[in-house]
């Protein structure tokens, strides 16, 4: 392109390199210095390129102003206003990011104004071209309406406590709700990840007692296949249903999907507990699967609760001698790597030093699955008995009683 | 002459205003009609006006005067000449030489000072908005009457003056450019007439400098341009206020690239031939441009021992490049290869370094160690030159200077306060943009602590300076070459018996434009370094120096190359 034949552009490219280097090294003054020399490329900004000088300057300038200690909000705002004039095609994007910046600096009112202003912007074809940004602007404005609603609600509750009433605040609150509801409802209909928006919307709906709508919204969000798979959606639905005393059956079906998506989710413990209480065999079988799956993940290695869940179920199975084949099935795919992963001698030592309860639960599981002669169990039970801890002695006895279980599991 | 009845009073009693319009003497009604000059003899005196006096007829629309592209260039040349004078060039350059060259150019390209006006057959261009007035004045010609003076008898005005045309100009030409003939400038497809351009102004300057045998090489000149001592970038700022610049004028006068040595040089050759200039004044061995002199200068700048000068002189003598007929510029003579004095001198030094040090990434270091040893026992003489030490010092300096230069390039500001716009419609947009730019520059300038464009360095002939007063021994001028030479038959000769040629065969310049090609990978690092050093000093690509080195080598080893050799010089492994 002709661009590269001119020394003008060559020197501007070099200038950009210096700016970039300075920014990467957090030398903001130096970056600002070189930016001053780059700025004149705006006068030759006829670019149809992906990223022309005006966009560069907007982004770089924003970074520098954020980090430079001498700059303040007023300067930043005036900078952004100029950036808005530079490119119609980017206008809404600049507005949106400006609003984010204001929010990050706690200036919610200014952000609200900015978003409202941007919302009413119309510019022929550009309006449709920048439709996405417009929707986001509406959504965030709706979010700020929610925020106002929330504040007003707090005020009312305070008044209530003290026996006051304030109709104007109440009126405002309802207005905010209406405005927020419209925007939020609209945005969450677009396939995407709208966690926070959904939660806010549901919060408002619950307050006004519109549970049906809330459930509808959450179900859509979780189950509509057009939306990207989002574990949080299921979590929100679960929490909602739990809040409203839904039967266990519904809760379990929601958590089942969560288990499928994210086997290591923290709710798996609750899920296991629910499943264990079930009378149905299938559920209890699932419970075992769930807890084993969770403990496959490194983040759960030292989770005492999880281990105690597993230990509890394993113990129960051992004692009842029913469903040993469950253990066999679960252990089959794990017997090659769980020993090194969870039950090494090193871990035995470490667990013992750091967390006795953890060691106890793990030892129980190890003893059943690997036999009482396994490294883990031997070490822990030895230490425990040495310290004359009663429960370890009990454990040892228990293991002696059921010493051959592991054979039936691993065989 | 005008014989219409006056609209207001119906008389036929016309006079001419100062602005060249007809007015009715009876009722003083001024018309839009202007008078065309037909009689050239009359115009001889009335038309010669100095531009600086600003006496212009036909102010159109209060937007400024009419001006022609070549007038613009004349301004530029004048400014450049003044700058050169400020740098120490003799005033003759501005007042006589450059002036005359320019006049001759105008003559040859038939833009002025000649009998036949150049624009005779050129019609008004299409593609521009046409003026609605076109049809209402049928007598108005569509020709551009440029100057039609007879050959000037050398009226030595200090300002080169141009007559102005009072021919009526079609308004449509002026829409596309502030100048009258801006659009024509690009339409003229006359290679032999050598279209004027900004780089060519430097060709003019250099040509004048060469004629006067001034102590300024082309690389010096171009360096002064980049450093801002000679007007080039944004020189149109010095045009008079009324000379409005827009549209196609920008393409002509607005510079967005630094001048390239080759381009300026080649244009100068064409120009000299075009102007049919005679043989230039002799370049003798007392001239600055003579290789002996330039070698001395570059040796100093490169911090090399003075003793190397003996060797450069020997090489110069041996291959006869110090001779007057070789060095002197004869325009138009296509058979002889033209001399680039600065490149030549640098190349000579490179060849000498190769002769003494071989520069094959091995020998020079061995030799340096050898010299170091000898230096230990050396009590009486001055220190012996050690290549290693020199390399360290130079590399460090070169890296520092290069880094500075790169940063300065990145900080180059191309725009100026004078707004540039392509059409009147865009003017407000351009001005708004300019305002934003200025605001942003202030805002970020404050943040960075200081907002000023890079300081112009003081003009100096030398870019690198080495002082013998430095006690750290970083100046090698006085060092002796004895450490690396050996005595043979009472003479000091090189210890190095070998030499490697940069290229065994020279390319045919006619076909590929070059004598040789410089490919980074093929040569030893020391050779690259030496080229890089001179490339930095001369501000040119290393390949130019490399080419010259090849040419010199081929002259030097001519006999060995072209006889059936037992000893075959070639690329060393």
Give a short synopsis of this structure.
Chain B: Belongs to the RRN7/TAF1B family. The complex is a heterodimer of chains A (411) and B (573). By secondary structure, chain A is mostly helical.
Describe this structure in words.
The complex is a heterodimer of chains A (411) and B (573). With 411 residues, chain A is mostly helical. Chain A has a domain at 324-410. Chain A has 23 helices and no strands. Chain A has helices at 7-24, 28-38, 53-67, 73-86, 91-104, 108-119, 125-129, 131-161, 167-187, 195-207, 211-223, 231-243, 248-261, 268-277, 281-295, 304-320, 324-332, 338-342, 345-354, 356-370, 375-386, 390-401, 405-410. In chain A, helix 5 (91-104) packs parallel to helix 8 and helix 13 (248-261) packs across helix 14 (268-277). Chain A is extended. Chain B is mostly helical. Among the domains of chain B are: 1-34; 66-110 and 193-277, no CATH class; 291-394 and 467-558, no CATH class. Helices cover 42% and strands 4% of the residues of chain B. Chain B has 20 helices and 7 strands. Chain B has helices spanning 40-46, 69-86, 92-108, 171-175, 182-187, 198-211, 218-226, 248-253, 261-274, 291-301, 308-318, 324-327, 341-357, 363-377, 387-410, 427-448, 509-512, 525-538, 542-556, 558-562, and strands at 14-16, 21-24, 30-34, 48-49, 162-163, 485-488, 491-494. In chain B, the strands form 3 sheets. A 3-stranded antiparallel sheet of chain B has the order 1-2-3, with no helix packed on it. Chain B has a two-stranded antiparallel sheet with strand order 4-5. Chain B has a two-stranded antiparallel sheet with strand order 6-7. In chain B, helix 2 packs antiparallel against helix 3, helix 10 packs across helix 13 (341-357) and helix 13 packs across helix 19. Chain B starts with 13 loop residues before the first strand and ends in an 11-residue tail after the last helix. Mean pLDDT of chain B is 76; it is low at 37-61, 115-174 and 564-568. The interface between A and B is medium-sized, with 35 and 31 residues.
């Amino acid at each position: 392109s002709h661009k590269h034949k001119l020394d003008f552009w060559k020197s501007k490219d070099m200038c950009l390199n210096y700016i970039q280097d300075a920014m990467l090294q957090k030398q903001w003054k130096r970056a600002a210095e070189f930016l001053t020399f780059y700025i004149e490329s705006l006068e030759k900004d006829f670019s149809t390129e992906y990223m022309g000088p005006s966009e560069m300057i907007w982004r770089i300038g924003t970074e520098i102003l954020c980090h430079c200690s001498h700059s303040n909000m007023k300067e930043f705002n005036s900078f952004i206003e100029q950036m808005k004039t530079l490119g119609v095609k980017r206008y809404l994007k600049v507005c949106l990011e400006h609003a984010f910046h204001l929010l990050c600096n706690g200036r919610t009112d200014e952000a609200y104004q900015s978003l409202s202003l941007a919302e009413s912007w119309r510019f022929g074809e550009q309006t449709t071209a920048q439709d996405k940004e417009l929707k986001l602007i509406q959504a965030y404005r709706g979010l700020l309406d929610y925020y106002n609603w929330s504040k007003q609600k707090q005020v009312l509750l305070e008044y209530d406590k003290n026996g006051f009433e304030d109709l104007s605040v109440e009126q405002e609150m309802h207005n905010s709700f209406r405005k927020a509801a419209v925007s939020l409802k609209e945005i969450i209909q677009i396939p995407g990840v709208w966690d926070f928006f959904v939660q806010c919307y549901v919060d408002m709906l619950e307050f006004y007692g519109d549970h049906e709508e809330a459930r509808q919204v959450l179900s859509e969000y979780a189950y509509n296949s057009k939306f990207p798979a989002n574990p949080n959606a299921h979590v929100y639905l679960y929490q909602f249903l739990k809040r409203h005393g839904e039967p266990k059956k519904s809760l379990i079906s929601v958590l089942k999907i969560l288990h499928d998506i994210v086997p290591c989710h923290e709710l798996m413990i609750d899920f296991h507990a629910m499943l264990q209480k079930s009378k149905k065999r299938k559920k209890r079988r699932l419970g075992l699967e769930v807890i084993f799956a969770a403990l496959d993940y490194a983040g759960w290695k030292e989770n005492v609760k999880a281990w105690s869940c597993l230990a509890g179920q394993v113990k129960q199975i051992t004692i009842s001698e029913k469903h040993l084949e469950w253990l066999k099935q679960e252990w089959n795919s794990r017997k090659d790597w769980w020993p090194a992963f969870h039950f090494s001698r090193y871990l035995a030592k470490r667990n013992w030093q750091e967390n006795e309860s953890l060691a106890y639960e793990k030892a129980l599981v190890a003893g059943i699955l690997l036999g009482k002669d396994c490294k883990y169990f031997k070490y822990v039970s030895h230490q425990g008995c040495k310290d004359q801890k009663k429960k370890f002695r009990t454990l040892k006895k228990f293991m002696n009683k059921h010493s051959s279980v592991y054979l039936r599991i691993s065989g | 002459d005008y014989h219409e009845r006056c609209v207001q009073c119906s008389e036929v009693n016309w006079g001419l205003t100062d602005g060249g319009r007809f007015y009715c003497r009876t009722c003083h009604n001024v018309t839009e009609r202007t008078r065309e000059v037909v009689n050239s003899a009359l115009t001889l005196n009335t038309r010669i006006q100095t531009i600086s006096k600003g006496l212009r007829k036909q102010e159109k629309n209060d937007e400024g005067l009419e001006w022609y592209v070549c007038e613009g260039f004349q301004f530029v040349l004048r400014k450049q000449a003044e700058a050169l004078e400020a740098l120490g060039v003799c005033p003759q350059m501005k007042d006589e030489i450059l002036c005359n060259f320019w006049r001759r150019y105008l003559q040859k390209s038939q833009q002025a000072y000649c009998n036949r006006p150049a624009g005779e057959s050129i019609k008004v261009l299409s593609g521009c908005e046409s003026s609605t007035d076109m049809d209402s004045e049928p007598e108005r010609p569509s020709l551009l009457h440029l100057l039609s003076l007879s050959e000037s008898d050398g009226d030595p005005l200090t300002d080169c003056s141009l007559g102005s045309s009072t021919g009526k100009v079609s308004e449509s030409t002026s829409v596309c450019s502030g100048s009258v003939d801006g659009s024509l400038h690009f339409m003229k497809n006359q290679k032999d007439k050598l279209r004027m351009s900004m780089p060519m102004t430097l060709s003019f300057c250099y040509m004048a400098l060469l004629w006067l045998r001034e102590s300024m090489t082309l690389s010096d000149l171009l360096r002064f341009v980049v450093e801002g001592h000679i007007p080039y970038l944004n020189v149109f700022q010095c045009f008079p206020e009324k000379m409005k610049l827009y549209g196609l004028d920008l393409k002509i006068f607005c510079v967005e690239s630094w001048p390239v040595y080759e381009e300026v040089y080649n244009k100068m050759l064409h120009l000299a031939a075009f102007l049919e200039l005679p043989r230039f004044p002799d370049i003798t061995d007392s001239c600055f441009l003579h290789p002996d002199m330039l070698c001395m200068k570059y040796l100093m700048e490169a911090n090399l021992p003075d003793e190397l000068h003996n060797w450069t002189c020997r090489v110069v003598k041996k291959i006869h490049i110090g001779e007057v007929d070789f060095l002197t510029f004869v325009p138009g003579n296509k058979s002889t290869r033209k001399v680039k004095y600065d490149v030549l001198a640098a190349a000579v030094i490179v060849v000498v370094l190769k002769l003494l040090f071989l520069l094959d990434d091995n020998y020079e270091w061995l030799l340096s160690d050898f010299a170091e040893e000898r230096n230990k026992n050396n009590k009486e003489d001055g220190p012996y030159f050690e290549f290693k030490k020199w390399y360290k010092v130079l590399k460090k300096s070169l890296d520092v200077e290069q880094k500075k230069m790169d940063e300065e390039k990145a900080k180059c500001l191309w725009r100026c306060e004078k707004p540039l716009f392509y059409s009147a419609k865009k003017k407000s947009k351009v001005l708004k943009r300019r305002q934003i730019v200025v605001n942003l520059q202030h805002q970020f300038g404050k943040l960075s602590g200081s907002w000023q464009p890079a300081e112009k360095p003081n003009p100096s002939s030398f870019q690198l300076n080495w002082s013998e007063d430095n006690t750290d021994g970083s100046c090698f001028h006085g060092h002796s070459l004895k450490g690396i030479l050996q005595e043979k038959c009472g003479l000091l000769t090189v210890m190095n018996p070998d030499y490697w040629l940069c290229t065994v065969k020279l390319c045919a310049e006619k076909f590929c434009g070059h004598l040789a090609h410089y490919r980074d990978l093929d040569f030893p690092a020391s050779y690259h370094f030496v080229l890089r050093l001179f490339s930095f000093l001369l501000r040119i690509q290393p390949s130019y120096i490399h080419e010259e080195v090849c040419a010199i080598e081929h002259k030097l080893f001519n006999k060995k190359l072209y006889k059936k050799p037992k000893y075959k010089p070639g690329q060393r492994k």
